[in-house]
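Chapter summary example.
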Amino acid sequence: MRQLGMADVLGELHVYMTDTGEKPRRIRNISELAKMAGVSAGTVSRALAGKALVNSHTRERIQALAREHGFHPNQMASRLRTGQTGVIGVVFPLGHEKKQAISEPFFIAMLGRIGDELMHTGYDLMLSRVIPGDADDWLDRIVDSGMLDGVLLIGQSDQFDVIERVAERYLPLVVWGTRREGQVHCAVGTDSLAGGRLAAQQLLTRGRRTLAFFGDTRAIEVEQRFAGAQAALAEAGSGATIVAYPTSLSTAEMMPMIEDNLDRMAPGTDGIFAASDIIAMATLRLLHERGRKVPEDIAVIGFDDMRVAAQTVPLLTTIRQDFDGGAKTMVEALRKRIAGEACPSSVLEPELIVRESA
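The structure predicted for these 358 residues follows.
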C-alpha cells in the first residue's frame, strides 16, 4: 500500500473541508498557498506563472487552489523583484499641432491597434499627450520616470532632434514615423516619399496639371509626402505644378484653413493632394458646398485609407498605410529592445487605393 505523504494528507483535508459546504477561507499570500498545497513557495510562484519547470499535475492543482481561495499574486511585488513595471508608455508628441486631440481618427486608429498588440504580450498601457513647447527635456522626463519598461511615440512631429538625443542613451524607444539616413532612433512607418509620388502620379494620370497640396509640412512625414509629389512632377516633365498650402489637423482650425486655401489656390487648379484623409474629406465637403464637382472639376486624393474613406461621396481615392502591420512591427521591435537587442527601423510600403475622387 502506498504511504501517504504530507501533500496527500493536506489534499484530503482540503476536500473534506470543502465538502462540508463551508466557504473556503481566503488565502492572503504565497506562503499560505504553499502550506496548503504541501509544496515550497518557489514552486507555487512558478506554478502560478505557468512555468514548465513545475509538472502539469502539480501546476494545475496549485492554480485550482488559488482560484478556489480567491488568491491573486501581488503584481507590484513581482515587478519589484524583476525590476520591470509591465507598463509601456504610448506618447503623442504635438510640437507643431498643439491643438490636435488624440480623439481624432488617425490617433484612434493607431492607439487601438497598438493596444491590441500590447494586450497580447501582457503589457499594460499608459497614455500621454505631450505638447513640448519651449522645453526640450519632455522625452527625458518620460523615459527617466521609472514607471515604464519602454516607450512608443506616435509621430515625430517637429521633435526629430529631441528624439535622436534621447535614443542615443535609451534603447527601448520605438517611433511611428519616417526613417532618415543615419538616424539613431528606431522608426516604423510608411515610406511617405513613395506615397507622395503615388498620389501625384495618380493625379497626373487623370490629366491634372495644376495641383495643390494641403498639409503642414513642419511635420516630417507631411514634408516627405509633399517632396514625393514634387519629385513625381519633376520626373514627369509635363510642366505640371504643385503648391503647398498650410493646413492644420486641429478640428477647430482645419475648416477655416481649407476655406482660405480654396480661395487662394491658383486659377485652374484641377487636383488636390491632401496630407491626410481627414483633410481630404473636409475638402470634399467644402467643394460640394461651393458647387464644385469631384472629380470632374477637381480631383482629390488623400493619405491614410481610414475606414471612413470608403464611405465618402464620392468615395475617396487615397494612399493606404498598413496600420495593422505597423502596430505589430512597433510592438515587436520594442519587445526586442526591452530585451537589449538593437532592432533596426522598418519602412512600410504605401499602396494606392483608387476609388472615385481621383
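To summarize the output: The chain has three domains: 6-73, 87-191+323-348, 192-320.
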